[in-house]
Specification:
Helix content is 34%, strand content 15%. 42% of the residues are buried. It is globular. The structure holds S-adenosyl-L-homocysteine (SAH) and iron/sulfur cluster (SF4).
């Protein structure tokens, strides 16, 4: 009935407002250095133009500065040689082009690299670079929050309370700093090979609980006059924040990965407690609505393989039933253990059987090879020490 549809839409809107209000409670500190200079990284093009207009700069200045920051990778105004010297000095007096500080960096036996980055207030988050099997390809896994409000049972980040959200500049800053480390400046254009060729929002935190900042960072990554990553090369992973999934699709159009992990509500309630709020039926309905999903752009369902918990043939068959008709692929993730984790990884035979059932139903079902396990850089192993900023509660 139309009335019911409107009521549901109003409910979604109310939920979205509630989520955004909560996001604001965990806002990052202002992006200013101790001397008061504003960090330009993370500002949208309009915000950058406004900041420059504030000190009397002409509108074309924003385009130049944008190019230097995101195309050339400059962090020093003195390098911005298309701007006259007095202009560069004016900019340097008021602004900085920041980077998160590299607290530690570790490289695993398989070349996966993990950084621990510190931000202005000392909060820290981890970023991982996963080199591709082919040369000149690789994924950067960035964090969106320090900690997480959700407590998925298998996830190391989930044992760390949410300290705060990261700002757009801190999110895109992780990518910029990783780029610095590999010296990949200026930005390769178009589809030319890139070492840092894809971005996955699969680090610490739930990106859809920090949507505005994540969206700001994603828009910067996609801007053709800077980094210029195509939206097909950016994937956001969510544990299933249903009311925000529509916005992600409509406003960003990037790839969506959904952390499914269980095919019955009783089990998913336990493994991914957010399921109590947004159960499987609602989650899959939101997936079916996700715009632009087609065979070319399939939704990825992530499914962690936990020995004796969710890895039976019956689970595989139910999974196929749930996603029937959806343009989807299933990424099977062998559980990556961490100190004190309560699960074991499914046997290779169980994973292979599960994959075969899903595959026979017409869904591609690659098994994600664990990368960087020796430095706790694999999926779900990220965790930092953090102080608590706000009070924790069900999100
Ligand atoms: N909060 C988002 C994104 C970060 S987690 C989400 O949950 O989707 C990125 C992926 O790693 C998710 O699919 C998550 O379920 C998975 N993951 C978490 N802990 C893991 C572990 N110990 N081993 C393997 N994958 C894990
Ligand atoms: Fe948070 Fe994702 Fe970890 Fe769940 S799996 S606790 S949503 S980071």
């Amino acid at each position: 009935m139309p009335g019911e549809v409107t009521a549901a839409a109003d409910l979604d809107e109310a939920e979205r407002s509630r989520i955004l209000a909560k996001t604001a409670r965990f806002a990052p500190p202002p992006a200013r250095d101790a001397d008061g200079r504003l960090d330009l990284v993370g500002l949208s093009r309009a915000e950058l133009a406004a900041a420059l207009a504030d000190i009397g700069e002409a509108p074309f200045r924003a385009k130049q500065v944008w190019h230097w920051i995101y195309y050339q990778g400059a962090t020093d105004f003195a390098r911005m040689t298309t701007i006259a010297r007095d202009g560069r000095e004016r900019l340097a007096a008021r602004f900085v082009v920041g980077r998160p500080r590299e607290a530690t960096v570790q490289t695993a036996a398989d070349s996966t690299r993990k950084w621990l980055f510190s931000f202005r207030d000392g909060q820290q988050a981890e970023t991982v670079y996963i080199p591709g099997r082919e040369k000149d390809r690789g994924a950067v896994c960035v964090s969106s929050q320090v900690g997480c409000t959700l407590s998925c049972r298998f996830c190391h980040t989930g044992t760390q309370e949410l300290a705060r959200n990261l700002g757009a500049g801190e999110i895109v800053g992780q990518f910029l700093a990783a780029r610095d480390a590999y010296g990949e400046w200026p930005s390769p254009q178009g589809e030319t090979p890139r070492l840092l060729s894809t971005v996955v929002l699969m680090g610490m935190g739930e990106p859809l609980y920090n949507f505005e900042a994540v969206a700001g960072a994603v828009r910067i990554l996609m801007d053709p006059e800077g980094i210029g990553l195509s939206r097909r090369r950016i994937t956001l992973s969510t544990s299933g924040v249903v009311p925000m999934m529509d916005r992600c699709g409509a406003e960003l159009g990037i790839n969506l990965a959904v952390s499914l992990h269980a095919v019955r509500d009783e089990l998913r309630d336990e493994l991914v407690p957010l399921n109590r709020k947004y159960p499987l039926r609602e989650l899959l309905t939101a997936c079916r609505r996700y715009p632009g999903s087609s065979n070319a752009r399939r939704i990825t369902f992530e499914y962690i393989m936990l020995k004796g918990v969710n890895d039976s043939d019956a689970d595989a068959r139910e999974l196929v039933r749930l996603i029937a008709g959806l343009p989807a692929k299933v990424n099977l993730i062998p559980f990556n253990p961490w100190p004190g984790s309560p699960f074991a990884t499914s046997t290779p035979a169980a994973v292979a059987r599960f994959a075969a059932i899903v595959n026979a139903a017409g869904f591609s079902s690659p098994v994600r090879a664990p990368r960087g396990r020796d430095i706790l850089a694999a999926c779900g192993q990220l965790r930092t020490a953090s102080g608590r900023q706000g009070t924790r509660g069900a999100a």
